[in-house]
Q: What sequence folds into this?
């Protein structure tokens, strides 16, 4: 087994790292204070980052998942908020459109999205439906004149306060008096957030990721064209689950970027800070904290790269034969997210500890990493939901053996 990066990937890594050092790192604190802005997204667009996973036919890079997770972990290293807002736009909103959209939808939306000129979001969660996606209540139905009516609300949506478009998961029925139940009928619709009847709540105040705006969306009998349905009515649950697989892969990349930042910040601090007449890195308990961060980082990076590579090999298929067994790739993405989010949270805790009181101060990056990381155990499905997915796949395997 050779896990060495090929020359092309190594060069890409260097170029994108340089871009992030020059364009993202210097403004990360500004983003924390004032929020992600269009200029940063446009720079990410120009650098090719937003289009990495989009096909070349739409102006994207047609890159591999391996290339994408590498770039994502580099961006996350420098700024979690920029990582999340760009991911919600080009990934959560953009990828389902690139994969399931009509030619007209792709041509209308993808080029501006991956240039960073327009911003998107994926709106699934509602105030009473988070983990239980199939219980959402937002509804969409034909009004009899060739249009659809969208009614309901969404909460905790990344980019809601700044987005131009949302991909909204809604319950489709021909007769509004007879709504569908469960996962059947769920449908993704593309909504212009500047349309009449759409309202946004104020950005929510959060524990972390303060530069990535999160908010509510309200749809008060919004009239949308039937051509805004993604693929077909009833396909929304399957499409959303696929989007979550990609999100979980990308969350693994986020965690790896954060762990690398924890290691670099802590190593640097431990080398320069002295106590009891010697650099703190020479106290065994501090050196052990660095060892714990490093070990979690290496294990996570390996799982991330292998999972991305498996996604590339599977080429969209839900399973792949690997080392003599049939792997369920959704379960693998859940394993990646479950493990890396726990490790990354532990690493941010260790990094703050290495810094002592300084780690509690906003001027040190580890303080931001610590506040930001908690989302990895919640967003894109909580750790408990990841365990359910993994356990379900394992029990099916047990029945087959
Ligand atoms: C910063 C941020 C950004 C977000 N961005 C988006 C976005 O862009 N788009 C979007 O649609 N959503 C977004 N979300 C919402 C996010 O996906 C949900 O918060 C998440 O899925 C959990 O749902 P919930 O908050 O309703 O928690 P709940 O579902 O109410 O869960 C509460 C607790 O109960 C546990 N639990 C629930 N059901 C079970 C079960 N069956 N078995 C065991 N334990 C269970 C959970 O694990 C959790 O510990 C965002 C959230 C945050 C915080």
A:
């Amino acid at each position: 087994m050779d896990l060495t990066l090929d020359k092309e990937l190594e060069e890409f890594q260097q170029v994108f790292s340089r871009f992030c050092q020059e364009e993202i790192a210097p403004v990360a604190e500004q983003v924390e204070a004032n929020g992600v802005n269009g200029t940063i997204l446009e720079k990410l667009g120009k650098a090719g980052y937003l289009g990495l996973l989009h096909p070349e036919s739409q102006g994207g890079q047609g890159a591999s998942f391996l290339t994408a997770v590498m770039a994502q972990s580099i961006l996350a290293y420098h700024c979690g908020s920029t990582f999340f807002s760009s991911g919600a736009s080009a990934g959560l909103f953009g990828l389902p459109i690139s994969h399931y959209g009509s030619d007209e939808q792709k041509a209308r939306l993808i080029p501006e999205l991956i240039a960073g000129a327009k911003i998107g979001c994926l709106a699934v969660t509602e105030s009473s439906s988070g983990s239980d996606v199939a219980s959402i209540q937002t509804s969409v139905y034909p009004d009899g004149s060739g249009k659809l009516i969208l009614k309901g609300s969404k909460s905790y949506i990344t980019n809601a306060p700044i987005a131009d478009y949302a991909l909204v998961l809604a319950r489709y029925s021909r007769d509004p008096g007879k709504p569908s139940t469960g996962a059947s009928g769920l449908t993704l619709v593309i909504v212009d957030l500047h349309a009449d009847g759409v309202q946004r709540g104020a950005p929510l105040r959060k524990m972390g990721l303060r530069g990535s705006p999160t908010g509510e969306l309200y749809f008060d009998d919004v009239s949308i064209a039937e051509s805004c349905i993604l693929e077909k009515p009833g396909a929304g649950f399957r499409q959303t689950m696929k989007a979550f697989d990609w999100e979980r892969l990308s969350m693994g990349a986020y965690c790896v970027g954060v762990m690398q930042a924890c290691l670099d910040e802590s190593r640097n601090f431990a080398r320069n800070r002295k106590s009891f007449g010697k650099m703190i890195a020479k106290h065994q308990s501090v050196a052990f904290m660095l060892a714990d961060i490093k070990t979690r980082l290496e294990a996570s990076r390996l799982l991330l790269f292998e999972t991305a590579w498996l996604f590339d090999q599977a080429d969209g298929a839900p399973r792949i034969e690997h080392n003599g067994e049939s792997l369920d790739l959704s379960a693998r993405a859940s394993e990646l997210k479950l493990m890396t989010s726990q490790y990354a949270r532990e690493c941010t805790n260790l990094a703050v500890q290495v810094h002592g009181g300084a780690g509690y101060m906003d001027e040190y990056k580890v303080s931001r990493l610590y506040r930001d990381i908690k989302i990895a155990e919640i967003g894109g499905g909580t750790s408990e939901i990841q365990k359910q997915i993994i356990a379900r796949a394992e029990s099916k395997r047990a029945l087959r053996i």
Summary: The chain has three domains: 7-118, 122-234, 237-400. The pocket of flavin-adenine dinucleotide is lined by residues 88, 121-125, 130-131, 156-158, 206, 209, 214, 375, 378-379, 381-382, 384-385 (CB under 6 Å). The chain has a mean pLDDT of 96.
